[in-house]
Amino acid sequence: MAVKDRIKYTLRLRLFLFLVVLVITILLGALIILFVSGNITAGLKENETFIKNEHSRILKNTVGFYDNLAAEAVAFSRSISMSIESSLRDNDLTVDDLNNNPELLKEILSDELHQIIFYLQKSKSSGAFIILDATSNSNLPDSEYSKAGIYLKNMEPNIVSSSSPTIYVLRGMADIAYKNSLPLHPQWRMEFNVADAPYYNLPMDKANKDTSLSNLYYWSKAFTFPKTNEKIMMCSVPLIDIEGNVFGVCGFDVSYMLFKLLNMPDNSRYERIFCLISPVENNILKTDGSLFSGGYSARSLINNNDLKISSGKRSLYIYENSGNNFIGYHELLKLYPENSSFADNEWALALLIPQEDLSSVIVSTNLKFIYISAFLMILGIIISYILSKYYILPISKGFDIIKNNPKEKVKTNIFEIDELIEFLSSKTEIEKGTDPSSIILNEFLKNIKTLTPAEYSVFSLYARQYNAKEIAESLCLSINTIKTHTKRIYSKLNINSKEELILYVEMLRESGRDIK
Amino acid sequence: MKKLVVCILIFIMLLTGCKSNEPLSAKNPVTINLWHNYGGLLKDTMDLLIDEFNDTVGREKGIIINVTSLTGSATIAEKLKMAVNDEPGAPELPDITTLYPNTAYMLAEKGLLVDIESLFSKEELSLFIPEFIEEGRLPDGKIYVLPTGKSTEVMFLNTTIFNKFMKETNVSYNDLYTFEGLIDIAEKYYKWTDNQTPDIDNDGKAFICYDSVFNMAQTIYKQSGDELIADGSLNLSSDAFKDVWKYCFEPAVKGYSAIYDGYGSDLIKTGRVVASIGSTAGVLFYSDIVTYEDNITEPAEFLILPYPVVDGGKKVAIQRGGGMCIIKSNEAKEYAAGIFLKWFTAPEQNLKFVSSTGYVPVTQMAVEMTVVNGDDIDDKIMKLQKTTKEMAEQYTFFYPPVIENFDELQENYDNNIKAYALECKNDYFNLLSNMNETDAFNTATENRYEEFTGQR
User: Fold this and answer.
1) Which residues of B touch A382 (CB under 8 A)?
2) Which one of A326, A344, B142, B333 counts the least CB within 10 Å of its CB?
3) Local confidence band at B15 (pLDDT 50, 70, 90 cut-offs)
4) Structure confidence at residue A184 (pLDDT)
5) Residue closest to B15 by CA, chosen among A375, A282, A275
């Protein structure tokens, strides 16, 4: 028991601790290598890569769509300008003649309807419009801001073909809608109110004969078109006749829903990730003029507050918003050619995540890492415990063998331990041999082996306390023969009497040794 | 050693997370794509409700509701058909969509819909008005359409114009409670407007427009105690169809009612008609102004009247408004969709929804909580709620049968009767140049009834 305790608390414990230290050292070493090699970055690098890749995907998509829409708007303007100019010329009229002439306006606009529908579907935009610098009734109050035109909304620009009506008339003469079986939009009005309409006034102001239409198209900030419920961005191009007279604008819109469906960010990692196309002024994203896209409503996150850009960790940016801060990435969008009249207008496409969400993902990533490290460490400790136990097992087994059967030559199949057992056994025998009584008994035993078989038979019967006569009868020998054997036995065993012989035998039995 | 094993097991459980039966996790939210037809002014209410859900229950349970289509119910039905048939350019099916039971029938037949009873307990379903729930039960006995807001049909009357007309003629609002009175008023209105331009003959204006002549026919049949649809086809040999002809076809030929493919609210916006019979859900589509051809506008006040009744008929009106279906996807999404629908139809949310739209609440508790007065409720909606309460007390409601070819029957009937009426109307007005009204009408419509009903 004392030996066992000593193994448990000393050798085995030492081995166990040694292995634990080894495990921790290996684990720490591995961690240091991973950190140094940049394979572990506390989640920052992965998140940065994800955000930039996702931003790059959406940016490519957005640039392609907006460029295409601007090109279509320029083509649309050329086509409509020529068509209206031709209609007016055929009737020997000018744009001024359209004022206060609802019938003529109806005729001119009706003629353009199919072209508007064609460009609306071709551009895959959510709305197409033409606005003429004319009104059907200039006697009405504020008529200088009332402009005739047509504005068609495609509620499903993503559907290739549809038998149910998806095109609604948002602005325009109701008769044109009725005659062409186009439903009126719920927020229909007959004419446009351009009192506060940059999409109309700015291209009209900048338009002139010498500037290419490609340099005159204008992207409005996102706004809610009057009396409607959805934010849109408008791309408008002036309508200019061959003599350079500007008589209106035309263009397309990008609705909130269309932008959202075209630019949906992957929200598998961050549930509240969103992207926005936004005007940039003084390093601030003006969210009021932005369109958003994301599975989660950005409106409730932003609360209509602007986002101030500042540099953040690595190549990401921090966007400060009163109450909520965001982390993400943005790049300036090139919505206009260099010589455009509106080239100064800066736009950006940004991909943002609430800061708390990013922190939460990083903490969660790191927690996972800590859990895995802790798991590996505990696994290492358990393995160390088991290994130390089994490693020591042959030693304790060997001790048991030596203790219980010192003479037994049991093998543990572990070379060093077998050597030790053998060494200890022989040492035990030597130690046993130094006992005087043991030496005498050993001598006695040694002498027994010198007896002849006949003598041994007599000896063994003496050992069983037979007398000479009983032995003679038992072995069917004469009493004289027995006496002769007895003399030789006494002589060989160095004893003088039967009583002495029996004493030796008893001593041998007591010491657990066999007389054979 | 045993202690050690237990510790290891606990640690492993902590690492892997204690797996429960809850298929959702706030850390890994599922996105539920939603298509709905609550556009126009209803959109704001839906947006606010969805934002509220995403910020509260959705955030707690890991559900994000994402609207991926907002369009009319007919377009939704068409998109669903395209998606089901995997047509080129078809969009991906959403997880939840608003639809009518007859569209749901098509999806259910393809095994694409989730049985609502698998997500709602009996107790939860018992909170709904039973008739509304039953409407969503399809022929296979399962409930696929969960009511979110129900509607009926009523008459919207522009009283700004009607009052001018009433002052000069011997009519009253009470006449509009019956089809006989309505047609009489429509005739008088046509003549009153015709007389305003004495130099132009026969240029009177239509008084009324019916959003759905098919629903009108179904309702007149029901009021007469008959069924328009029998054995999957139209039962036009019934005497009830004579009433339909009298109240729908004949006034249309004479120009008293409008023949129009769109909604009556479009014609009311321009003063082309004074009244329209349509869904209560369309209440916000009625503009507060009328815009005339010369861009002159005038404010429009509305009176909302119960559905007219045929002479001697029962007070019966159609129950409309579909509901929401859950499209089969995976366990987590279906479960999440169920949670959203439970939240959306709970009395508090349901009331928010109906109080800014023309829908009727779908749970008994929400009906009892309905407020018919309130500062923040639109005036037209308040008037509408009073009328629908009055109808709920006096009328019985029916919902259209769910049959495979329902949409086809409806479309064919609508197109045919309008085409017949338009053709006869053109003939009638041509004949008026050398005939009196009665002769012109008889000539223009000779044998048309028999032709239409297949009796010739």
Assistant:
1) 4, 8
2) A344
3) low
4) 92
5) A375
Residues B358 and B39 sit within 8 Å (Cβ to Cβ): no
Q: Are B263 and B305 in contact (CB under 8 A)?
A: no
Is residue A246 predicted with pLDDT exceeding 70? yes
> Which range has the top average pLDDT, A402-411, B82-91, B220-229, B384-393?
B220-229
**What pLDDT is attached to residue A2?**
44
Between positions 377 and 436 of A, the ones with CB within 8 A of B are 378, 382, 385
Q: Which of residues 171-200 of A touch B (CB under 8 A)?
A: 173-175, 177-178, 181, 183-184, 186-191
Residue A45 pLDDT > 90, yes or no? no
- Which pLDDT band holds residue B290 (cuts at 50, 70, 90)? very high
Q: What's phi and psi for B68, nearest 5 deg?
A: -115, 0
In the predicted model, what is the mean pLDDT of residues A146-174?
82
> Is B383 in contact with B306 (CB distance < 8 Å)?
no
Q: What percent of chain B has pLDDT over 70?
A: 93
Chain A residues with CB under 8 Å of B88 CB are 160
* Backbone phi, psi, residue A85, to 5°: -60, -40
Identify the CA nearest to B190 among candidates A152, B182, B380: B182
Give the closest-approach CA distance of A412 to chain B in angstroms: 25
Secondary structure of B139-169 in HEC code, one letter for each residue:
CCCCECCECCCEEEEEEEEEHHHHHHHHHHC
- Asked whether the beta carbons of A207 and A220 are under 8 A apart, the reply is no
For residue B390, how far is the Cα from the chain centroid? 19
| Measured CA distances, B218 to B226, B230, B240, B402, B416 (Å) | 9, 11, 10, 14, 16
> Residue A84's CB: how many other CB atoms inside 10 A?
24
What does pLDDT average to over chain B? 89
Tell me the residue type at B277: I
Side chain identity, residue B356: S
Q: Is A152 helix (H, G, I), strand (E, B) or coil?
A: strand
How far apart are the C-alpha atoms of B8 and A508, rounded to whole Å? 57
CA torsion B425→B429→B435→B439, rounded to 10°?
A: 10
pLDDT at A3: 45
B286 near B156, Cβ under 8 Å?
A: yes
Q: What is the rounded CA–CA span in Å between residue A347 and residue A275?
A: 13
Q: Which residues contact A328 (CB under 8 A, 6 or more apart)?
A: A51, A55, A316, A317, A319, A350, A351, A352, A353
Tell me the C-alpha to C-alpha distance, in Å, between residue B402 and each of A240, A444, B253, B322.
56, 116, 32, 12
Locate the chain B residue with the closest alpha carbon to A293. Answer: B66
CB A161 within 8 A of CB B89: yes
Residue-by-residue DSSP string for A34-50: HHHTTS--TTHHHHHHH
Q: Which residues contact B214 (CB under 8 A, 6 or more apart)?
A: B409, B410, B413, B414
pLDDT at A7 (0 to 100):
45
> Of A282, A281, A155, A291, nearest to A221 (Cα)?
A291
Which site among B60, B80, B266, B297 would you substitute to test the A interface, given the most A Cβ atoms closer than 10 Å to its Cβ?
B266
Torsion, Cα B341 B343 B346 B350, to 10 degrees, reads -80
- Residue A279's Cβ-side half-sphere holds a number of Cα atoms within 13 Å equal to 16
Question: What stretch of H or E contains A501?
Answer: helix A498-510
- Pairing mode of beta strands B396-398, B316-320: parallel
**DSSP letter for each residue of B244-259:** HIIIIIHHHHTTSB--
Cα(B377)–Cα(B348) distance, rounded to whole angstroms? 16
CA distance B140 to B419: 36
Contact criterion met (CB below 8 Å) for B223 and B398: no
pTM of the model: 0.77
